[in-house]
Amino acid sequence: MPEGDTVFQVAHTLDQALRGQIVRRSQFRVPRLAVADLSGQIVAGCAPRGKHLLLRTDAGRTLHTHLMMHGSWVLQKPGGRWRGGPGHEVRVVLETDAWVALGFRLGVVELFDTTEEAARLGHLGPDLLGSDWDAAEAARRLRRRPERAISEALLDQTCLAGIGNIYKSETLFLEGIHPLRPVSQIEEGALDAVVARAHRLLHFAVKHGRQFTTGMYRERFYVFERTGRPCRRCRTPIAERRGPPVGVSRITDPDIDRAARITYWCPRCQPE
Q1: Domain segments of the chain as ranges
Q2: CB neighbour list of residue 270: distance below 8 Å, 6 or more residues apart
Q3: Which residue in 140, 261, 267, 268 is the catalytic one?
Q4: pLDDT tens-digit profile of 103-128?
């Protein structure tokens, strides 16, 4: 699933292309919005909120979408053949004089008054890439349930929004913390350092890409998806644990994907 940095970049691309443009044609290919129409409205902007995308119009309407596992937005010039996937996978079409924005395989498509945004998304914690970022508040929220494993707590978007399995895994490796360690067993300063590291990693990825190591593209991560391969620091084989986070029987939050059920770590650099 795309994480906060990817959603941030998608929002920026859509904002640059559509802001100030009049929607000439809109189409929503989801049953509950079959008759909805944004034609004639001006795109006021597009902004990210954690892993959520919010496209707003001058008429006070917000189009809320979530990419989930396989969603994407494609921009192309009007009149051409649609790119990005087969037509039956398109969920949203927004056409202006300059662009056609196509939302493919979107997991969430909602249209509501902009005034409802806080009520609908107010449960999310501080956004790691947002203007509302508050490291102290994020750490406080992580401590609310001290019995949880830190790997599970970090994926809770009500604590801090935008982090996924890549940043969970890489952050905990760089801070030397075992992913299954309960939050209660992590000292306050160490937990603050975890929050700060996650914040730095997402900002680094937005500016430079997910090149956390100095290797080539395929060698860009420290532990993520490197099961059995030698740790870059100590050469110990990277371990993985499959299954839902500790204490969770199934994942229903749209912000947490199946990949979040796999945890990666170095047994030596991240001792229990």
Answers
A1: 4-121, 135-265
A2: 172, 173, 176, 177, 178, 179
A3: 261
A4: 999 999 999 999 999 999 999 999 99
